[in-house]
Design the sequence.
């Protein structure tokens, strides 16, 4: 099994719909992240969480919300999807110190 | 402003040839620098990590260099293979656990 699992892998949704992207990890790390990747813009941080009771906004949090249901689970929601939220979304986890990220395989979201 | 810039944006090379990817950064105070490989449709996977005191680090056919004085890093790929086709992302960590991502270099290796 993958260390970081994202579901779904691909999703097409209509403008205005609510959608949730799910992430679970088996690394046992406290820190989890949601990134968005757009061509030419690299990875941009949406939200991050250092533990179940700690949620922080990243650089592009508008239009998104998150829920940290457990140490291993971190979901990203788009309350009312819009076309410019079409992107590749990555969940990642890392320990508090020392090592880098472990990324999931990504969710390709298309909003039509 | 803390930034990470990578060049070239894209690169096409023949199988078996060598290539070098560049990463320049203005992140301060510097903690470490990582190179990630991202295959199409997959998440980034770490190749190397370099701290301030390290100049060179190798991982198989991948060799990363770091010049902390000029704030430059390079990733050299030797004897390229078709499986090296991917995006390569430079990530610089700032003290305090802040991370800055480059936009990546897209490498295509052709037979």
Sequence:
């Amino acid at each position: 099994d993958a260390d970081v699992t994202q579901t779904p892998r691909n999703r097409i949704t209509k403008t205005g719909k609510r959608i949730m992207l799910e992430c679970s990890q088996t690394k046992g790390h406290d820190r989890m992240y949601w990134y968005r990747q757009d061509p030419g813009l690299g990875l941009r941080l949406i939200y991050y969480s250092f533990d179940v009771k700690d949620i922080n906004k990243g650089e592009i949090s508008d239009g998104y919300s998150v829920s940290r249901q457990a140490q291993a689970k971190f979901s990203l929601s788009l309350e009312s999807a819009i076309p410019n939220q079409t992107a590749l979304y990555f969940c990642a986890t890392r320990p508090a110190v020392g090592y880098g990220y472990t990324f999931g395989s990504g969710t390709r979201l298309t909003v039509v | 402003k803390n930034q990470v810039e990578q060049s070239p944006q894209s690169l096409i090379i023949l199988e078996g040839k060598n290539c070098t990817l560049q990463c320049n950064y203005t992140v301060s105070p510097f903690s470490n620098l990582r190179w990630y490989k991202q295959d199409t449709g997959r998440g980034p996977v770490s190749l190397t990590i370099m701290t301030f005191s390290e100049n060179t680090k190798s991982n198989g056919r991948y060799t990363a260099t770091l010049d902390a004085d000029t704030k430059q890093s390079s990733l050299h790929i030797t004897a390229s293979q078709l499986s090296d086709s991917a995006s390569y992302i430079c990530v610089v960590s700032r003290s305090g656990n802040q991370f800055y991502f480059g936009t990546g270099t897209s490498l295509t290796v052709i037979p």
